[in-house]
């Protein structure tokens, strides 16, 4: 039996935005390549989107059209329901459930859906012997779900890290290179169309937090717990901090970190300092990077486009080809019913911290700050005081490894010294 | 049925060096994790190595011992033959063939075997409905075979690049950072045990060339053609060139490049200049990096340890878990009988070149060199002449994009100018 004569795998695509059209283009352009690689043709039988009259950059005339994605999901001539609508409630969820109920496999790029309902959907899929695939939901074109679930399956995972929101990394990089304040670059990004309709999904770290929670479930065999992700966006990062951190040899990144500790599962999506010379530190602009650490493999770094038509469609098609080739795994790498409910770590692992404070020009001021830090159990690794023409001067401190609690204790004690102006800034330095 | 009660996948491991023992340790340490992830236990039933009396860092007492790997490969209680002996002839080949003939799947870390006999072995495996897996053969712990074969399966691959011999990258990095000549660092590497018994496998580019030929077959759907790889080792790289290239903003790497061109399949494993600020340029020491470029996904960069017990065993176990989970693909991603025989490109794609020549201190010398280059069709992008106390001075030239033929034409014409001393050095600048 040749590839062309084998039974085709039939896709129904819901959502014809950038990514949906990207998938249509690949299926059309690479029909022969895909058939050669998967041993059978992959075809689109039906599509669905809200507005049929919209001008789209692909010929859809050979596909059945469904206004209702739930109807698409249940069609007899669809084997795989490809969900590219987005949103964690409403149509995307309804249609995904309908597809599973109708005995279809599902491929989705929807990180919000999985972050909020991944466990229930995975259980539903496995109860009916079907699978949900979601390579496109995390880090766009980077095949990180596959690397973590399959390639590193022989490892106990130690830590997963990532810069997984290209817009945030673009903003931070642009602030640094152009010397512009956050608000200006935020507005630029909005005008360039880089921001979600609700920009807090990007700059508040929510989108990246969704991705992190999915990676954590696979890495640690736990149920997805997006609500346990400690989220802090980039809105409070100043151009000053970017510059000062640079002076000390660091870059500021919105960095996701998930690790299993003695205190439970730690999931953070927060601004962090990383060494400027590290792969994460060198990451510029909208590119994504994921770092996977396993007990045998050591550190694996994956880098690529985290969004955009081609990269995201590439990830969707990777999943589709897996299904066409008969490669099927439980959603999170092991049966959903075997995933354990993790205890959320309430404190983060010890780390060095970057502290910036505005020190008044008074005798003994620095000694007072040092005493407060010492009393809180924080020891100083490096310190830099800047020249000043004013009555106060910025002081930068890189601490030795300590706890966030100790840092917060010190910050709470600064006002009583009467030598620190305003609110000190403390940013974790992640060892990468 | 629980994971523990499902039928176990039984491994027979041939070769108990660093990697073999690494695999034994993972199977023993992570029995529960592996069973949870693959839905069934993975066990070792038998092992084989030349010397049974050798002291090894693992308890092998529960495994049957075979002196002859061919006998191991045919045992009834072995489902997967794990070949970790190395070498492309003799025992490794005989035992792999025996395993396939006996109806076993094969997992191997043997790049030489696949580079020389991959096509025949893949055809043999597919004729009996079995598979050969070899993630560990290329770039150690980096799951690059999986990323290319599966994750990027929806892409037409444009180019594959990689620094895939850690020893060479260690030598080049060490020359640069310590300012030591090649011979000294080569000797250091030998004493540190970084070099193969035949060091030409490393520094001659053969080992890395094996890996490149395997990636090219998957990327372009072609038969493995190691003999078509243009090989040039690092033995002629001088500390001078490393420094001068650095002055111009480049690093020198032993870089593998495979791309399908209008002139045929180009496979090169040669020293190249890459921008110091690129991921490849920033790669230090023994770490490996592979760059995959697809028409949809753009550029994906994968980085990690290319050798060593843990990373290589991690890759072997990734393959083993795939088999335990029932994930089975043809060896090179599509049936071996459908792989086409590529035409080897006899010339490399146009590129900029770095030229270093020793120019005599004579009136009009530089003009003569520029004329020769111009006559050969090579135009100059940047030029730097160094101060000198001697009768000649080094001149560095970065050309605009040109062909290797044009460069060779110019080099052949330099002697007639009587202003160039010695042999000019020309190194390709790869656009990364």
CATH fold node name of the largest domain in chain A: Dihydrodipicolinate Reductase, domain 2
| Rg from alpha-carbon coordinates of chain A | 24 Å
CATH class of the largest domain in chain A: Alpha Beta
The coarse overall form of chain A would be elongated
- Going across the biggest sheet of chain A, name each strand in turn: 3-2-1-4-5-6
Specify the CATH architecture of the largest domain in chain A: 2-Layer Sandwich
Give the assembly state of these chains: homodimer
User: Superfamily at the CATH H level of the largest domain in chain A?
Assistant: Dihydrodipicolinate Reductase, domain 2
Q: Output mean pLDDT of chain A.
A: 95
Q: What order do the SSEs of chain A take from the amino end to the carboxyl end, as H and E? A: EHHEEHEHEHEHEHHHHEHEEEEHEHEEHE
| Count of individual beta strands of chain A | 16
